[in-house]
Specification:
Layout (H helix, E strand, L loop, with lengths): L2 H15 L5 H11 L15 H18 L4 H24 L5 H34 L4 H51 L1
């Protein structure tokens, strides 16, 4: 994967860590196991069955815990620093061909920063929901965050692939049109 593209995928997945810490790791594990996501050296463990089981279990526990009003606030205290760490690791696991110092600096600032921003927004929104609904709206908000984390994780991986396919299709169309125009000139001559 191109270094710029891998950074973009990593930051997109890191942002999803701000909604749910383990959902992006579970999605990464699934895509890596399927051979659709290349991980940088030292991070191949993410694409193993034991990691898939661990991420799946952690994701299920995290999703259920966020559905319990009161427990969701306690989980936010734990999840906020964890999201920054996960975002940093996610970005680092995808960035290849960079000096290690630059790689980890980029992973911390871009990946950890994206996760922290999304997590901070999520915490503020949940706090406002707790104040205005007495916590009754928090499970609905938690379900939306889980959906958002899942969609963002899948799209972060698929959009570059879909974009590349669209560019290739556009190039093929332009070449086809050019070929037709060229063959039309030859017939007229």
């Amino acid at each position: 994967m191109d270094p710029i593209l891998s950074i973009c995928v990593g930051v997109g997945l890191s942002a999803a860590c701000g909604f749910r810490v383990f959902v992006p790791l579970l999605v990464m594990s699934l895509f890596a196991l399927g051979g659709h996501l290349n991980l940088s050296p030292g991070f191949s463990w993410i694409g193993t069955y034991p990691a898939l089981i661990a991420f799946g279990t952690a994701t299920a526990v995290e999703i259920v815990a966020y559905l319990v009003p009161g427990l969701d606030h306690l989980l936010d205290i734990i999840a906020t620093p964890l999201a920054v760490v996960a975002g940093t690791l996610v970005t680092a696991s995808l960035v290849m061909d960079l000096n290690p110092f630059l790689k980890w600096t980029l992973a911390l600032i871009a990946g950890g920063g994206a996760a922290g921003i999304f997590q901070g927004g999520s915490v503020l929104l949940r706090g406002k929901s707790a104040l205005t609904t007495g916590g009754a709206g928090n499970p609905l908000l938690a379900a939306g965050e889980t959906l958002g984390a899942t969609a963002l994780s899948v799209l972060a991986i698929l959009i570059p692939v879909l974009l590349a396919a669209a560019v290739l299709a556009a190039c093929a169309f332009v070449l086809w049109r050019f070929g037709r125009a060229l063959s039309g000139r030859r017939g007229a001559a």
